[in-house]
């Protein structure tokens, strides 16, 4: 084996740093959808529209009615490690927004053609910034932001090859919006594909949104989860053992409003079903965990899909107990409002 000749140490160019970082954050169109919807929610939006072309590969547009970005800050929005959401380590420890790393827009615009149009309440009109040319021009829209992402991975053909069919990518994009929709019933979401409305969730209360997102079937075959352990609060629904399925495709866990995939929580749920579920079948559940922000670290992974708990044993126990208690409830005793 011959080693490559040693090269001098050099700093990588900005664009390349962003492209490397993009490898972690942007895997497929659905990752872009996720980041853009995160941003729309952080801006206090009440209506979010996601418009896709070719499963999001050709284009993803996310339009919101949030507070917008002042036009003089538009170029900053695309810069790496530039954010309006935190300013210090103290802020980081109590962060309540979905974003805070200031990486997403920079990463996305290093692997796609991006433009942002935005208008604030006191701006005379909207301005649109083209990321590639840096050109800023007046644009017609109300207060809020539209981010357009075209030709994902156009400049990284190796990564573009990893994308699946348009139908598969579209399904992942819809799933990304579904994950947000489940935890934000106060926001209305629409998903469009090539001009056709493919998904719509109107504003609702928490139970109503669970019904709309997870379906009547799930509600019918699940029990309410509700436990309050002071620093840890868990609500949601757990599917009956009979409603378990072959695939783990209806398992939603949120920590302080953020969708997570966590082994510890999954194991806690699993052990609650231990005695009643057999043969590798997968339970369906939606769990919303609220925990004091200083007891959980969300800054573990760039996508923030992983979290770390200060008292992981307590969380594991809490989840297990909450689900066990729910499964012990016979259906008839569950409170259902009576129609008058
Ligand atoms: P982060 O969300 O971690 O701050 P991003 O790269 O996703 O980083 O966004 C950078 C900044 O651009 C945000 O901090 C925010 O100020 C602004 N921004 C992005 N999208 C929106 C939006 N839809 N509405 C308002 N501001 C936005
Ligand atoms: Mg963001």
Automatic annotation (TrEMBL):
One of its GO terms (biological process) is mismatch repair. Residues 210-328 form the DNA mismatch repair protein S5 domain. Keywords: DNA damage, DNA repair, Endonuclease, Hydrolase, Nuclease. Coiled coil: none annotated. GO terms for cellular component: mismatch repair complex. GO terms for molecular function: ATP binding; ATP hydrolysis activity; ATP-dependent DNA damage sensor activity; endonuclease activity; mismatched DNA binding. Belongs to the DNA mismatch repair MutL/HexB family. This protein is involved in the repair of mismatches in DNA. It is required for dam-dependent methyl-directed DNA mismatch repair. May act as a 'molecular matchmaker', a protein that promotes the formation of a stable complex between two or more DNA-binding proteins in an ATP-dependent manner without itself being part of a final effector complex. This is DNA mismatch repair protein MutL. The lineage of its organism: Bacteria, Pseudomonadati, Pseudomonadota, Betaproteobacteria, Burkholderiales.
